[in-house]
Amino acid sequence: ATPLADRIENSFARQLEGLPAQTRRLVQLAAADPSGDRSLISRAAEWLGIPAQAARPAVEAGLVEFGDRVRFRHPLVRSAVYRSASFSDRRQLHAALADVTDPDADPDRRAWHRAQAAAGPDEAVAAELERSADRAQARGGLAAAAAFGERSAMLSAAPARRAARALAAAQSSLQAGAFDKVLELLAMAESGPLDELAGARVDLLRGQLAFASGLGSDAPSLLLKAARRLDPLD
């Protein structure tokens, strides 16, 4: 049996197929930025050459509202609309949104859209995401810091930078309680070159993870191992 959410999404996707091409592209653009910022989406639409009147068929179909903010009829509408865009189209939509986002007023949103638009490793974007992760960490946004950090690691061209960023993202994920993600990020970190201190930090995180996740039988030995490695270093 098809799950109910999938059936609802498919129904919305069929409605979308009946809309004009420019309308579909406009609602896909709106779906690519969850903030609902009407001004941002309008600027990006202009950047892509989508006319303002393209919104009307989607509004008349009851899929989306273009008021003070852009609001989809249901969260699954946004999901269905976003999935209907090809990978290359999504990259172009995010590139447009990044281009019209003020780098001073909203650097984190711009960094995220630039990351979604990247075709492969990009050190400039990775560094921008790393700065976003630091800002999120400073304001207590641990889940955001982890997400920025993970994407930064994935876009890093140099193995050493990827390993260091993955290790930082693992720390944020542990603090955010995303224990499964910690293991993924530690594996990514260990695939790159790590100096002795970074290797000891990996051991420390594994011990802290074992303790925090409730699977604590291994925690003492893991933490002692980390302590012995850290003793001459830090």
Summarize the structure.
This protein is 70% helix and 3% strand. The chain has 234 residues and is mostly helical. The longest helix is centred in the C-terminal third of the chain and has 18 residues, at 159-176.
End-to-end distance:
56 Å
N-to-C series of helices and strands: HHHHEEHHHHHHHHH
The major pleated sheet works out as: 2 strands, antiparallel
Percent strand: under 5%
Q: Helix proportion of residues, in percent?
A: 55-70%
Low-pLDDT runs of 5+ residues are none
- How large is the radius of gyration? 21 Å
Number of helical stretches of at least 4 residues: 13
Number of strands: 2
Strand order of the largest sheet: 1-2
Could you describe the 3D structure shown?
With 234 residues, the protein is mainly α. Helices cover 70% and strands 3% of the residues. It contains 13 helices and two strands, in the order ααααββααααααααα. The protein has a two-stranded antiparallel ribbon with strand order 1-2. α1 crosses α5 and α2 packs across α5 (75-84). The longest helix is centred in the C-terminal third of the chain and has 18 residues, at 159-176.
